[in-house]
Design goal:
about 350 residues, alpha/beta, 6-stranded parallel beta sheet, 6-stranded mixed beta sheet, 12 helices
Length: about 350
């Protein structure tokens, strides 16, 4: 079995330097030396002494959380769940906003590791970026080697504990609903292409449309930031390109609210002229006028489950918990406008108490 001295010798560094890297010391170590030590750890399959890990972890009281933007209602709700469990267990949360910048996420992993947090939770979407994914996994492996616990929320190319919202099924439910209401000309207001959340929600939506004999050409998809202004601007571009759209799927509720604003500014009645479906079911969705039909994800529960995984008993193999999506019918969806004077599809009533 490899020892710390073996790792230091293989990396060509002193045992003290190897220890700083492996144990996440806040003392500075150059990136070149850090990479050499981590490579030696991987090659030798070095496992730190379990008793030393226990001692190191015993004084750690904080949990690090990296979110894309805590002011985003999606992450605010997840954070509520994280905070609930952390508070019950006497833990302090250290929350970092990456603003969907992969490089900043890598920096925060190093920063939180240097602070020797007891656990680390990545609460944002994964990225379609192989170089970033490789670097992230290396840094998380080094953190785990010191006794740190890791969980992710959303789809990441990371082998470890994960809480997965069923984004694909959610997209499918939105698409099926609009098809059953007779819509054929459907536009999509999507988030950034690089995010796995965008990919998964689009894939489910597209599957539902294909099953119903509809298509979703790229010209009816507009990508923008996952916020209100992004939704408003993307909706304007969709309508300029195809004024005959009868429905819009926004891949989060903030974007859906922006879509409603653009439709209102253009005097296009919702849902009589254009139906709108959002995604997430953030608290304001039921209070806008008209109340937003959306796909509900159990956002608070996602936070609760992720924090429970990292603070609970360790498992032998990675655990993946998939939390369900459900459609919540409110007032922004109705039969396709073109069918309103003929054999219109059956109108759906809003779900009670939603």
């Amino acid at each position: 079995m490899a020892t710390l001295s073996d790792v230091a010798r293989r990396a060509g560094v002193s045992p003290a330097t190897a220890s700083r890297v492996i144990n996440g010391s806040s003392k500075p170590v150059t990136e070149e030396l850090r990479e050499r030590v981590l490579a030696a750890v991987a090659e030798l399959q070095y496992v730190p002494n379990a008793h030393a890990q226990l001692l190191a972890r015993s004084h750690r009281s904080a949990v690090g959380v990296i979110v894309h933007d805590v002011s985003d209602p999606y992450f605010a709700e997840i954070t509520r769940g994280l905070q609930r469990v952390a508070t019950d267990q006497g833990r302090l949360l250290m929350i970092c906003n990456s603003y969907r910048d992969p490089d900043r996420e890598l920096e925060y992993v190093e920063l939180l590791r240097g602070h020797q947090v007891a656990a680390l939770i990545l609460a944002g979407s994964g990225y379609h970026d192989e170089a970033f994914t490789r670097q992230l996994n290396e840094k998380l492996a080094a953190y785990g080697a010191t006794g740190g616990r890791v969980a992710v929320i959303g789809r990441h190319e990371h082998s470890g504990d994960a809480v997965m919202p069923d984004n694909r099924t959610g997209g499918y439910l939105a698409g099926r609903e609009l098809c059953e209401l007779g819509h054929r000309t459907i536009g999509v207001v999507a988030g950034p292409r690089i995010l796995t959340t965008t990919t998964d929600r689009l894939a489910g939506l597209r599957q539902a449309l294909v099953e119903q004999g509809r298509d979703l050409p790229e010209r009816r998809i507009r990508y923008a930031e996952f916020d209100r202004d992004g939704g408003a601007e993307a909706t304007a571009r969709l309508l300029d390109a195809d004024p005959e759209l009868t429905a819009i799927v926004a891949l989060n509720d903030s974007m859906a609210i922006g879509a409603l604003a653009t439709l209102r500014a253009r005097s296009l009645a919702v849902p009589q002229r254009v139906s709108v479906i959002g995604f997430d079911d953030m608290p304001i969705a039921r209070d806008v006028t008209p109340a937003l039909t959306t796909v509900r994800l159990p956002l608070v529960d996602m936070g609760v489950r992720a924090m429970s995984l990292v603070l609970g008993a360790e498992a032998v193999s990675p655990r993946v918990e998939v939390l369900p999506a459900e459609l919540v019918r409110r007032d922004t969806t109705g039969p396709a406008a073109r069918a309103a004077t003929g054999s219109a599809p059956r109108a759906r009533r809003a779900d009670p108490a939603s």
